[in-house]
Amino acid sequence: MSYNSLADFLEELAGRDELVRISAEVDPLLEIAEITRRVAKAGGPALLFDRVRGQTMAVVTNLLGTEHRVCHALGIDSLDEISVRAETLIEKNTPQNWFDRLKMSPEETGANKFRAKTVKNGPSQQVVRLGRDVDLANLPLLKHWPHDSGCSITAGLLLTQDRGDERHLTVRPLQALDHNRLAIIDDGHSGFARHWANHLQAGDKMTAAVILGGDPAAAIAASTELTDGVDAFHMIGLLRGKPVDLVKCRTHAMEVPADADLILEGYLDPEVVPAVVESAGIGGSHYRVPRPAPVLHVTAVTHRSHPIFPALIDSGQHGEIGALIKTRSRLLLAPLRAAVPSLIDLHLPAYGGLDRWAFVSIRKTYPFQARQVASALWGSPVLKYTKFVVVVDEQVNVHDAPSVLAEVGANVAPERDVFPYDGPAHASDHANSMAPLGRHLGIDATAKIAGEQSGAWPAPLATSEEIKQLVTARWGEYKLPLPAGGK
After folding, report:
1. Superfamily the domain 319-444 falls into
2. Within 145-273, where are the H helices?
3. What pLDDT, in 10s, does the model give residues 365-417?
4. Maximum Cα interatomic distance, the chain, rounded to a whole number of Å
5. What is the pLDDT of residues 250-262, one digit of tens each?
6. What is the model's pTM?
7. CATH architecture classification, 6-311
8. Taking burial as the number of CB atoms within 10 A of a residue's CB, which of 99, 184, 213, 282 is the most buried?
9. What are all long-range contacts of 236-239, with beta carbons under 8 Å and residues at least 24 apart?
């Protein structure tokens, strides 16, 4: 399903009682963030703040704060449908990597119908401000945490283009430095970082754009880092089931979505000294260690006549971060299954930050298979920074952390089932003492089979199906104030 604007999506959410409009005046400094975190942790609705102090634009938060709203944005009933949709692109006699399917020529793949197309104009350029008329103070930038060194754009999709034709979208916080400069908070592992490194080496300026609002499918696609050579707008078209219309920027040659609410155009100059800013880490519980931040010079601001400004408020496992992480797991499942056929399911919880944990279930058929699976996952571009990989048997629900921990407690002998792997470390991991090398840890929490230990492995406790059916059938006779399922 596709939406012509963010407002269209909000209208549908309102009709489903999943949007609350807040008419009281609120402060963009800390207040909006705290309101949103409380609502997100309770699994609450999207929030539309009509009166932001000192601003004219409305702000929406917790937009994709639940799995249900993500599904609604994509026109699906379950996130599992994303995996099914992806698997349709992995067929016999084709590349085994799903992302490679997106890189094939138009004649080779049916996904061609989702490629972006260029149009002459669009709503995202109804209002145009250039040069001296650019003033970031006119945007409702938010401050999220007390020690942030400035106000930020957090739901912006940073669009860059390599020295070739590859376009990449990266969700990165951008902190305002003054009226026309933004510090790009990036840890050096994104598509943006790859593009900027290539331009730095060549000594060339790099054009960029920041996309805000429009079809929420764009934010969902951008939340998953794609491999080199995959066009960002092709992925969005695949997710929304309709090609993205693009318009040419006003101050450079890049193209941006015609349906966006706001577009910030600009460039990065290799001769400009990076800024150093302090901000919170994404998906974690600590501020990030200050690092040099490349500076984006904003040359134009274009937007709809009545734009809505989206903001991504980090609520840890709750709200949009948690929902987007779950979506990322579903998007990655198909290509990872192609590389690891025994993989059943995948969950990437953000306990302590992004790229910290992977819970995976496998269909186990031979001794120490969990070690091979973990090694394969660490060898994949999308999971190479994952600090802890926990492998469980196929019947375990990896999305239920207590169930995974129960398997660890029951099945793991540390001297046999805990194994290290040394590889690249994520720069956002402040606990790492070996940077840039990092020690990763695998935990084999599967039931042990012949060849892994001597003696028989005990069977798990389980009620027989006959007794389950009997008790369910007679439940009304017991007159107990509990549901028949025993919850």
Report:
1. UbiD C-terminal domain-like (3.40.1670.10)
2. 191-202, 217-222, 232-240
3. 999 999 999 999 999 988 999 999 999 999 999 999 999 999 999 999 999 99
4. 79
5. 999 999 999 999 9
6. 0.88
7. Roll (2.30)
8. 213
9. 236/116, 236/169, 237/114, 237/115, 237/116, 238/85, 238/102, 238/111, 238/114, 239/74, 239/82
